[in-house]
């Protein structure tokens, strides 16, 4: 990784962390993040099914 890429990556990581903390989402350990509601396979599948259904209904209406 070049120095410019490293600097850009570090800058983006700082901005992402600051944005998360500004919205009340402090950085969490990976194990804690993996247990969140949005990363469960059943929730992702249900969201995809609902989106597919909504898109299909929109297409026919």
From TrEMBL:
Alphabetized UniProt keyword annotations: Membrane, Transmembrane, Transmembrane helix
Transmembrane segments: 38-60
Top-level lineage group: Bacteria
Name the UniProt record assigns to this protein: ABC transporter permease
Organism per entry: Methylobacterium trifolii
């Amino acid at each position: 990784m070049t120095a410019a890429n490293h600097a850009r990556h570090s800058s983006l990581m700082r901005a992402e962390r600051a944005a998360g903390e500004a919205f009340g989402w402090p950085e969490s350990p990976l194990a804690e993040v993996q247990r969140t509601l949005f990363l469960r396979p059943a929730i992702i599948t249900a969201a995809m099914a609902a989106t597919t259904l909504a898109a299909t209904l929109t297409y026919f209406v």
